[in-house]
Amino acid sequence: xxxxxxxxxxRRTPPPLLIGGAEVSQQLLAEEFxxxxxxxxxxGSHEAPxxxxxxxxxxxxHLLAHGVGWEEQGGEIRYSWNGVACAALPQxxxxxEFARLLSDLAPELVITSQEGSSDLAATARARTTVAGWLHxxxxxxxxxxxxxxxxxxxxSRFVASRARPAPRTKVTVFYPPYSPATMGEELPRLARDGxxxxxxxxxxxxxLLHQLVxxxxxxxxxxxxxxxxxxxxxxxxxxxxxxxxxxTMGPLYAAHQLLLVPSQVEDAFPRVIAEAGLHGVPALGSDxxxxxxxxxxGGIVLPPDDTDAWVAAINTDGHEQLGAAxxxxxxxxxxxxxxxxxxxxxxxxxx
Length: 351
Fold this sequence. Notes:
nine-stranded mixed sheet, six-stranded parallel sheet
């Protein structure tokens, strides 16, 4: 009996070039399908869907750094990553290649999301089961619903509450996958100190961050580059260390006392909260969107415009106990995800 096939198709980069939480979540799920014996194809682009800016150089460099060989012909890059067959094409070839994959592979499932995903969902819907992954409540995140996928995977209860699908689309809360490698590991016994924030841009609360840095000169802040480089904004602070974007966050989490998530926008379910929690690091987060849902009892939720409250929360005791609660909250998210998809009817029952 032939193995079933799942196609991940979108207009962003395929693994392992990661930009944000959506890329990480989809890569982890694709790898889980591959480990379970599925044929997994991941179709993406080496051009950004929002402005067609090239990413092909970044992709080549990243594959080279990871020792991954690739085939390149006519502007298309093809390679294998952890059992996932990946293809990065120019934007104007995505739809044609997607139609070819549907015809040649007859996949049991298509998973799509983000920019332009409604068209991909509409194309595939008559031929196979389609799941649209709702990574946010923005027009981009919810846009796939316009293509009437059979299933909508909402990355939190908050996102599910904002979804307005067609009657034939079933919405399922499907929390982001997290690597099971952290399960059962002993927490590193390091002297934790300082505050950590990832992606210090205005939408994520950099304005509040500036105030905290100024109000708490005795505290050390480590900022990690996210969507773009904002290092110049923080060069004048002696208590700030700015770290370029990194794929190895574990040592950073383990070395810090608190994670700051002061978003001004309604984040869906920030991955960094659970990632930090797995290392015993609690989060201080704003009361926007799905942030309180992600924090649960493993941190403190605060208004994003109340600087005094943030200063008081940082200076309070009890962070160690919160860290233990954060780990307890995050551990269930390292679960196998395919049983959830089977229970929701997205894939056939597991044997």
